Amino acid sequence: MTTDRATAKAAAVPTAQATDHATGGAPSDGGGTPFAQTAGTPGTVRPGGRTARVRTAVLEAAGDALVEHGFHGLDLADVARRANVGKTTVYRRWSTVTGLVADLLEDMAEQSVARTDTGNLSDDLRANARLVVGTLTDPRQGSLFKAVIAAATCDDRTTQALNRFYATRIEEWAPCVEAAVSRGELPAGTDAREVIRAVSAPLYYRLLASGDPLDEATADRAAAAAEAAARAGAYVVDGPGAR
Fold it and tell me: 225 and 122, same structural domain?
């Protein structure tokens, strides 16, 4: 996935600790499900007016807390204090820490910069790669992504939210590759989403595994490598050139 905002590994926590943390300290039925949980997925309603302002304040506070303390230090009461919002409001709307993180990821996807459409595959992929690097090297966004990815290693709901975030960003950029296929720049049958994934994969590897520098030169090399592979037919999944 690409993504562009703005993500490393977290050790697993004991089951009881993870359950208490996942409920944000709210009363639970013993299985990690709060008694007061509202119907539907917390934080997924698209509100307006005061409710929208509350959501914005809470998500910003949650991001700050994640950057400072990581997923296992995230606490709904602390987020409410930071946002200057009543604890009852936060517990009623998001119910759990994982519900809050899931909504934060959804908001990040919505706020991500729209794709560049230059009419040239090389320029489009380069823009995508530079956007990813810019996000991952931003002091706040880079730390936030690391914290969220750490959370996803030990919480299924956060994993699903992270997958949706990346899927949203891939869908945003895939049309650039599809247009390149229609212009004859790439072989027919090229999987546009695989090309976009190939651009960002080495960048996330540097962030989360190797610790090697991330800069524009790195972004440009990642884009060029993905483009070269695509032109050679590496991502053809349908048609005579499929591998």
Answer: yes
